[in-house]
C-alpha cells in the first residue's frame, strides 16, 4: 500500500536566522523542536524518535543522542545523519518509514548550525590532494558545474540572475529573512566574482539558526487533534560520487532519480505542481533541478525562468520565502517549512489555491538529492 | 607562504613519484577499466588486478573555474588563478591548472600535459594543444 498521503508534517518550528552570537547548535535544535511541538499542539512526551542532521560546520560524535538528551527525550530510534543538505528530506522519509514499520509513533526531524558566528572553515576547505592545485571550497565545485552547463547549453548570465532575483525579491517581503535586499539584473551583473563563473549573488548566505518538523501518521494526527497537518504525497532520493571528476556528467543531477521516485509515489507529474521550493545553494542548482525534474528540457532552464516565470504571479513561483539566497543559508529545512505554509494557505506570499508543493534538498556539491511532494 | 602539499599514501605514492620523473600515470585493471585516483581494488570489478600505466598526456578540457578569492594564504598572490577539470584520452579525469591565460580557455579544447615544479613538488598541469595537432 502506497505511503502517499498517509503521513503528515504535523508541526514546524524555527529559531531566529542570521547572526546569533553565543549560540550553540544543541540549544538551537531544542528551541526549534519546542516551537515545532507547540505548532503541532502536542507535548514532548509523545515523541519517541529524534532524527537530526549533523551540524555542517561542526561534526560531533553521537550528536543525535546529545540533542535527544537536551530535549529530555529517550527515543526508540533516530540519530545523526550526514548527507549534506539532502539529509533533511531524507530524515523526514526515514521517520515515515520507521513509523510505517512500527518502530516509533511521533518523530522530530531537526537541524541547527552556527557557521556565521562560529567556524565556517568547512565551506572553504581544501579538497584532498588536489589542494596543491588550489582546489578549495564548496563554491568552486558548483562553479565547475556551472561552467560546463554554459559550455554545453550556452546558458546566459541572465538565467542565473533570474534565479537569484526570485529568491531575493521573495525574501525581501519576509520579515524573518536574513537578507532583505531586492535584486535586479543590473545589480546582479555588478556583483563581484567569487569563483568565476560564480558571482557573490549566486551564492547562499552563511547563517546561524535551527529548524524542526514533527512527523506522524495522518491517523495519529486526527486522534491528537493536530490543527493543520500537511500530507506527504511523495519522496525520493539519489546519490552520486564524492569527487567531481568521478562523475560521468557534470550537467545532470540526482534530481532525475529522486524526482521520478517522488512523482511516482504521489501519482503526479511536474505539470501538477503549483509552487516549488528549490534548493538554491547556488543559482545553477535551481536551473539544473528544474531541468532534471522535467519542468523543461535539458539545457532550457534559462528560457523557463525568464520574464519573472519563477517569481510570485509567474507560472511556477519558486522559493516564496527567500530560500538559501535570502531567507537563511541553513541547508534545506526552511524550504520544507515554507512548503508546509503554502499547503496550509498561511504563507506570506501565498500562491492562491495551491494544491501541490514540490520541495528539493541537495547536499554537498550535488552529491545527494532528495525530493518531497506536499499536498493539502 | 608555502603551498599545500599532497601527502602521498601507500596507494598514491607511485602517482606523485612518476610526476617527479615527468610522467603522468593512472591505474588500469585486468578488466580494462582505467581510473584515478589510485585504489587497491578496481571500482568496476572490485578485483585487485590493478597496474600502473603511463598516460599519453593528451586530453580534453571539460570545465574550469577562476578563483577571485583565496581560501589559503599561499594562493593570495596568484589571484586570479584557475583550476580545471581535464579528461585524459585514456578515460580518467583529474583536477589540474591550465597554464594558458584564462581568456583563451574553451570548453572541450584539446590539452597536453605540462609537468611543472612548485618547490620540491611536481604537479601535472596542462596547456592548450597546438592547433596543428
Describe this structure in words.
The complex is a heterodimer of chains A (376) and B (133). Chain A has 376 residues and is an alpha/beta fold. In chain A, 34% of the residues lie in helices and 18% in strands. Chain A has a single domain (7-118, 205-374), classed as Thiolase/Chalcone synthase (Peroxisomal Thiolase, Chain A, domain 1), CATH 3.40.47.10. A nine-stranded mixed sheet of chain A has the order 3-2-4-7-1-8-11-10-9, sandwiched between helices. In chain A, helix 1 packs across helix 2 (63-71), helix 5 (157-171) crosses helix 9 and helix 8 (255-266) packs across helix 9 (283-293). The longest helix of chain A has 16 residues, at 25-40. Chain A starts with 6 loop residues before the first strand and ends with a strand. Chain B has one domain. Chain B has one helix and eight strands, in the order αββββββββ. In chain B, strand 7 and strand 8 (121-128) form a beta hairpin. Chain B is globular. Chain B starts with 12 loop residues before the first helix and ends in a 5-residue tail after the last strand. The model of chain B has no long low-confidence stretch (mean pLDDT 95). The interface between A and B is large, with 35 and 38 residues. Strand 5 of chain A pairs antiparallel with strand 4 (58-67) of chain B.
Amino acid at each position: 500500500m502506497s505511503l502517499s498521503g498517509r503521513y503528515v508534517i504535523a508541526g514546524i518550528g524555527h529559531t531566529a536566522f542570521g547572526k546569533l552570537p553565543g549560540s550553540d547548535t544543541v540549544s538551537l535544535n531544542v528551541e526549534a523542536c519546542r516551537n515545532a511541538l507547540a505548532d503541532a499542539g502536542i507535548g514532548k512526551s509523545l515523541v519517541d524518535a529524534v532524527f537530526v542532521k549533523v551540524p555542517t560546520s561542526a561534526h560531533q560524535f553521537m550528536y543525535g543522542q546529545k540533542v535527544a538528551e537536551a530535549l529530555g527525550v529517550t527515543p526508540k530510534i533516530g540519530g545523526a545523519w550526514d548527507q549534506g543538505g539532502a539529509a533533511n528530506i531524507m530524515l523526514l522519509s526515514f521517520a515515515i518509514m520507521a513509523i510505517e514499520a512500527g518502530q516509533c509513533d511521533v518523530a522530530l526531524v531537526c537541524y541547527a548550525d552556527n557557521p556565521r558566528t562560529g567556524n565556517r572553515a568547512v565551506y572553504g576547505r581544501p579538497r584532498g590532494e588536489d589542494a596543491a592545485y588550489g582546489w578549495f571550497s564548496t563554491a568552486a565545485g558548483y562553479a565547475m558545474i556551472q561552467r560546463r552547463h554554459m559550455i554545453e547549453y550556452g546558458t546566459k548570465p541572465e538565467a542565473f540572475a533570474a534565479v537569484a532575483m526570485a529568491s531575493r525579491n521573495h525574501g525581501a517581503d519576509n520579515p524573518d529573512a536574513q537578507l532583505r535586499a531586492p535584486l535586479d539584473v543590473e545589480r546582479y551583473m555588478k556583483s563581484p566574482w567569487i569563483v568565476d563563473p560564480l558571482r557573490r549573488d549566486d551564492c547562499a548566505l552563511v547563517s546561524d539558526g535551527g529548524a524542526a518538523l514533527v512527523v506522524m501518521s495522518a491517523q495519529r494526527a486526527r486522534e491528537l487533534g493536530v490543527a493543520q497537518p500537511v500530507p506527504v504525497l511523495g519522496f525520493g532520493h539519489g546519490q552520486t560520487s564524492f569527487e567531481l571528476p568521478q562523475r560521468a556528467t557534470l550537467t545532470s543531477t540526482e534530481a532525475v532519480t529522486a524526482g521520478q521516485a517522488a512523482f511516482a509515489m504521489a501519482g503526479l507529474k511536474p505539470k501538477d505542481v503549483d509552487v516549488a521550493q528549490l534548493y538554491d545553494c547556488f543559482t545553477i542548482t535551481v536551473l539544473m533541478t528544474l531541468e532534471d525534474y522535467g519542468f523543461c528540457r535539458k539545457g532550457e532552464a534559462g528560457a523557463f525562468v525568464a520574464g519573472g516565470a519563477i517569481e510570485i504571479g509567474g507560472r511556477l513561483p519558486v522559493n516564496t520565502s527567500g530560500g538559501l539566497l535570502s531567507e537563511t543559508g541553513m541547508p534545506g529545512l526552511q524550504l520544507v517549512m515554507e512548503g508546509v505554509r503554502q499547503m496550509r494557505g498561511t504563507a506570506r506570499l501565498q500562491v492562491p489555491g495551491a494544491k501541490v508543493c514540490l520541495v528539493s534538498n541537495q547536499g554537498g556539491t550535488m552529491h545527494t538529492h532528495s525530493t518531497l511532494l506536499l499536498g493539502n | 607562504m608555502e603551498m599545500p602539499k599532497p601527502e602521498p599514501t601507500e596507494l598514491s605514492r607511485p602517482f606523485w613519484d612518476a610526476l617527479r620523473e615527468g610522467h603522468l600515470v593512472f591505474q588500469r585493471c585486468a578488466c580494462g577499466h582505467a581510473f584515478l585516483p589510485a585504489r587497491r581494488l578496481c571500482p568496476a570489478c572490485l578485483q585487485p588486478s590493478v597496474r600502473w600505466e603511463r598516460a599519453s598526456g593528451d586530453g580534453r578540457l571539460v570545465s574550469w573555474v577562476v578563483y577571485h578569492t583565496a581560501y589559503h594564504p599561499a594562493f593570495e598572490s596568484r589571484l586570479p588563478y584557475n583550476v580545471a577539470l581535464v579528461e585524459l584520452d585514456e578515460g580518467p579525469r583529474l583536477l589540474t591548472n591550465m597554464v594558458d591565460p584564462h581568456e583563451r580557455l574553451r570548453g572541450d579544447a584539446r590539452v597536453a600535459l605540462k609537468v611543472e615544479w612548485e618547490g620540491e613538488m611536481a604537479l601535472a598541469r596542462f596547456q592548450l594543444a597546438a592547433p596543428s595537432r
